[in-house]
Amino acid sequence: MDKKYTIKDIAKMAGVSKGTVDRVLHNRGKVSPTALEKINEVLNVIDYEPNLIARNLKSTKVYRICVLLPDPEIDSYWLPCVNGIQEAITEFKAYSVVIETHYFNPESTKSFLNTNENIIKQSPDAVLIAPLFHKETLEIVKQYDELNIMVNTFNNQIEGESIKSFVGQDLYKSGRVAASLMNLILTDGQIAIIHIDESLKNAVHMQEKEKGFRNYFDEKKISGFSLTTLKLKHPNVETKFLAFVEENPNLKGIFITTSKAYQIASILSSIKTRKIAIIGYDLVEKNVNFLNQGLVHFLIHQNQKRQAYLGVSTLVEHFLFRKDIPETILLPIDIINVENASFYVS
Amino acid sequence: MDKKYTIKDIAKMAGVSKGTVDRVLHNRGKVSPTALEKINEVLNVIDYEPNLIARNLKSTKVYRICVLLPDPEIDSYWLPCVNGIQEAITEFKAYSVVIETHYFNPESTKSFLNTNENIIKQSPDAVLIAPLFHKETLEIVKQYDELNIMVNTFNNQIEGESIKSFVGQDLYKSGRVAASLMNLILTDGQIAIIHIDESLKNAVHMQEKEKGFRNYFDEKKISGFSLTTLKLKHPNVETKFLAFVEENPNLKGIFITTSKAYQIASILSSIKTRKIAIIGYDLVEKNVNFLNQGLVHFLIHQNQKRQAYLGVSTLVEHFLFRKDIPETILLPIDIINVENASFYVS
DNA sequence: TTATTTTGTGTGTTCGAGCACATTTTTTGT
DNA sequence: ACAAAAAATGTGCTCGAACACACAAAATAA
Description:
The structure is a homodimer of 346-residue chains.
Chain A: H1 7-14, H2 18-25, H3 33-45, H4 52-58, E1 63-70, H5 79-92, E2 97-104, H6 109-121, E3 126-129, H7 134-146, E4 150-155, E5 166-168, H8 171-185, E6 189-196, H9 203-220, E7 225-232, H10 237-247, E8 251-256, H11 261-268, E9 277-281, H12 285-293, E10 298-301, H13 304-321, E11 328-330, E12 334-336
Parallel strand pairs in A: 1-2, 1-3, 3-4, 4-5, 5-11, 6-7, 6-8, 8-9, 9-10
Antiparallel strand pairs in A: 10-12
Helix pairs in contact in A: 1-2, 1-3, 5-13, 8-9, 10-11, 11-12
The first copy, chain A, binds a DNA duplex (30 and 30 nucleotides) through residues 6-8, 16-20, 22-23, 25-26, 28-32, 35, 50-60.
């Protein structure tokens, strides 16, 4: 039978007191060889699993976890993360965990560093960081390491041996997925890879996607396509893009590496004469609207909500239930079109 | 501050004993209006959340949950479910829950009923059923209702007011998703909708998918396509299918409504002269192999593992944490091609 | 041999909710 | 007015792990 054994059971079986069993289990010394052997004998026979409930009941320690991400009011890309964090808060509200969210300005490394200082003042047990700035992240992680504060990262992967865990997506592969879909929609023609981002802070982010996208076409040796990269920045997006479309009459497809596909779709909707396929990222409302209108063909779902949720929950479960924190959690690259979109928006 | 209040705290604040507070919280009567008001006043001010850990520690009741599904040795479609159930067992092994799996022969209604009898003998607190047989399911659910045993269903949706909760996918919509992908691969020609199933027990299942698939083409008024339905049964699959391909030179695409796409792909791989697109269901190993070879274009992921996991975990969380059981959980219809498949196979 | 560490072992309390039971207060009946 | 019943309230124990502390049994020193 799958009876649950308690420390008391073990003590009785070994003919010692529960205190001695406890000392053996946590090897905090002061146990005679005789007692040790007797207890180990019992432990070898039965399958002891400590009751996590009782363990957590006793400990009065309140674990504090801080999440650091860009202010969703500045970049709405991060809005789903807030929901994911909220979900984790709700799930663990019954336990002695406090989860705090801190925002920084994604345009400012200074804001990033300042917010980190504030977090350190809270002396949390762990932090979950969206590491937008490479160099600054490595610096700050070193600080956390020295203070013995556990660090988890999400959204974009930062190289560095001090970074021990990450939740996110394989961006290179997501570029390849986009390419495979584009190759299905089109048979030939010019394809533009467009990076739209006011702050080019997540350049690596977008480059990885482009690499994957280009690599797919290179590897397959598919002829008939020509790929062009286009970088658009805030005030001139429309004028520059319209000029580009004008200059390239053979443009048949567009791959947008950020969540701003709706900007391009909106501009294109005014040019009824051209039929251009669009593939973008993220199920933000405006993107889904254009998906429903048929102007955007596919969206790749980055599932930020789940990223944030998993980032927090792995930390919480580490403290509460002593679970290991996985080195990398790669979320699937969800392919979204107008038919299945409704199941992903939450 | 976000201090966690205990019953004792409330008692002190309201000037009563913890017993009285307990009676108010669980409204088990015998409380004077005066005390009730005092306690409610306190409860309105503070935000009391009972400590689930302490609650579960006390209760010695062991909840028993039985899962009923077809024997995966007979139909390997169900293998991922076993993993999903195993995942739930691991997650909840620290709690006083026992999760038992029972198999039935999917070809035999008698086996289905017999296994249910066995489950009833175990007098579980809840069951999760894969309700393959419509009529028999309704009967058995009535029995469970009378015995006050909670019932949850997964995989295929059964109509009936006694069925209170379901975890699965919208099959009609998944047919539409398949159609939209087919419409992307092909521009015209004949498309076959193939049902392969030794036992035609899940006919409704497959019909829903076909309906969705056909509806997509009907609704869009796309000309140039002709749809044909083909039913193939075990010993004659190859001969009948080959004859069909022979007779229909314009056949360009095949939609297989079961997880047996690999059977068709395998037969087609011998006919090198014909280029026919295949869309099927489920990430079984053989299907993924043909996906990698480029013979299968898309697979729709039904995510049986997660279906089973969620089916069990909602029940467990209902008992342990008093969470509500959602009426229907519709999992997203994941679109899989060769580029993103690796992220979904577990 | 007796005093004094050192080492080993057992006992008892804590955590918070839940519930049985004891005790007090109020109400009802005569 | 007083007993008896009913209602209201408080007390105390339980669950299992963790750990402090008390105590006992050897080991060493004087």
